[in-house]
Amino acid sequence: FCAVLGALLVPLAYQCIWLLTHSIPASIFSAALILFDTGTLTLSRHILLDPILMFFIMTSTYSCLKFLTYSHKPFTLLWWVWLTNTGISLACALGVKFVGLFVILLVGYTTISDLWRLLGNHSISLVALSKHVTARVIGLILVPVLAYCVLFAVHLKVLDHSGNGDGFFSSAFQSQLIGNRLYNVSMPQYIAFGSEITLKQRRTGGAYLHSHFHLYPEEHPPKQQQVTTYSHKDDNNRWKIKPADREIGASDPLVYVQSGDLVRLEHVLTRRNLHSHKELAPLSKHHFQVSCYGQNGTGDANDIWIVDVEGASRGDKIQTVRSKIRFVHYHVRCLLHSHDKKLPKWGWEQLEVTCQPNLRDPTSMWSVEEVIDARLPNVSFEVYSPTFLEKLVESHAVMTQGNSGLKPKEGEVTSRPWQWPIDYRGQIFSGQDHRIYMLGNPIIFWSLLVIKVLFLVLWLAYSVGHKRKIPLNKNLQIYCERSFRVCWWLLLAWFLHYAPFWSMSRVLYFHHYFPAFLYSAMFGGVMLDFLVTLTCVCVPGHLAVKVFHFCFLLIAAGILWSFYLFHPLAYGMSGSLAAVEGSMMHNVKWLDSWDI
């Protein structure tokens, strides 16, 4: 499937450039630069999201350009077909990856430019213009939103089983997942002293309050038991809630926990109490440390917490799932808090838990997810089931947080955006005996850099000549203006798909560049045709055809030769590494940064 979609990038690129230039050589060059790029080939040969994303980016671009060709036939059937297809393709691109947002910006810019052109056409009435605006709102806003929601409705319907990532979602969301401990379950609606509970932080991707037998290291005294948050279900997430001033006996009367109560939280497996003191937290130096302390449920006065339920009056019962709870430390006067900071190896890379001195901090909210107490009556968890819109919003919030918080694994090779256009370093796809290394075709990548510089020089020279009114053949002037206009649009498309990565703090990889590379390759194809045409203009007329054929064959041979040199990177290599003399790839390790 991915290979087919990757293969379709080539004819889509050809068609896009044909619609922009009506030049067969430019279309062939553009398609060839994508076809013979080893990086694009490597991505297309693997089961990844990238070829699917690039396919829908290209269908969005093609559909948008095709729609513009029907500008002289507005509101006809084909006009509506290509407008709607553009909207659906945009929804699919965004549905694959958030990078699809960049092609939405490109289509949005193109649409606004087209409407601006229509506004300047005095033969079009304001009523007709309003119809054009309405049609684009329908085709490029309403249709994509509807298609996107349908995609997620199908997604949520099909992927309805429990998995390792359940803990990133709210309790209500988890209750809809088959196999989850909260699915089709009944549990107490309220909690009582003596109940065993799990606490989940009420924020997007919030994790479970967690502890284990491991202690804080000596550099974070005192060496008490670690408290963290952990995104996965675990028996170490269970806590017993007790009154602050006594233990609960089997014969004691049932007493519900209420807002304003003083409580202790005893970790069920280790029998130590949740504890805080005025020692600094390991990572957040303006917060206080949270630990577990004591023996067999007995600790000291620093184990006492005040239960504060948002929006509740003193004496209101705490509800499972629904109540938003702050735990205020009785002596230190700080809030039980967690965030996305990961502890080092000694903390198993789980999330730091602290005591936050800001008592108004809105992120220090918790909810009770599970209650284990045979004394309490149960209610069905169905009462907490979220609507489709709530699930849609929550799933996007979790995805956004997870995406922005991605960090490299130990020893993993990452890259930064400045490295991508210069092909500074590739990406290892397989480190076995049959090695695959994703690297853009260096001849193509470096040629595109040179072509971009040449374009700026030629455009600047043309602009100066035009400003100085230097005479130029009329047909050549029209050709130059059209070519420059197309090149600027493709450069904008490349920039929109490339520049945003410079502002991202998350971990990045070389494969993130390839949607932008598609536009860079199409830009290169148009410019190669432009340069060949200029060369032919500069030679005597009887030689022009021969020069054109020579240049065309020279460029084609160069692209084919470069692919021949580097194709083992995509299809697989064996034997010695390229750094070893005698290796089959030794002569093509042109940069030390290439891990071939």
Automatic annotation (TrEMBL):
Recorded metabolic or biological pathway in which this protein acts: Protein modification; protein glycosylation
Residue ranges annotated for the MIR domain, each copy included: 188-244, 254-310, 315-371
GO cellular component: endoplasmic reticulum membrane
Keyword terms: Endoplasmic reticulum, Glycosyltransferase, Membrane, Repeat, Transferase, Transmembrane, Transmembrane helix
Record Gene3D superfamilies: 2.80.10.50
E.C. no: 2.4.1.109
InterPro entries to which the protein is assigned, alphabetical: ArnT-like_N, MIR_dom_sf, MIR_motif, PMT-like, PMT_4TMC
Reactions listed under catalytic activity: a di-trans,poly-cis-dolichyl beta-D-mannosyl phosphate + L-seryl-[protein] = 3-O-(alpha-D-mannosyl)-L-seryl-[protein] + a di-trans,poly-cis-dolichyl phosphate + H(+); a di-trans,poly-cis-dolichyl beta-D-mannosyl phosphate + L-threonyl-[protein] = 3-O-(alpha-D-mannosyl)-L-threonyl-[protein] + a di-trans,poly-cis-dolichyl phosphate + H(+)
Annotated TM spans: 12-36, 48-68, 88-112, 133-154, 443-465, 486-504, 516-540, 547-566
Coiled-coil parts of chain: none
A Pfam family it matches: PMT_4TMC
Compartments reported by the entry: Endoplasmic reticulum membrane
Membrane topology label: Multi-pass membrane protein
Principal location class: endoplasmic reticulum
Entries under SMART domains matching the protein: MIR (SM00472)
Molecular function GO terms recorded: dolichyl-phosphate-mannose-protein mannosyltransferase activity
Family: Belongs to the glycosyltransferase 39 family.
Cited PANTHER family: DOLICHYL-PHOSPHATE-MANNOSE--PROTEIN MANNOSYLTRANSFERASE, PROTEIN O-MANNOSYL-TRANSFERASE 2
The protein's name in its UniProt record: Protein O-mannosyl-transferase 2
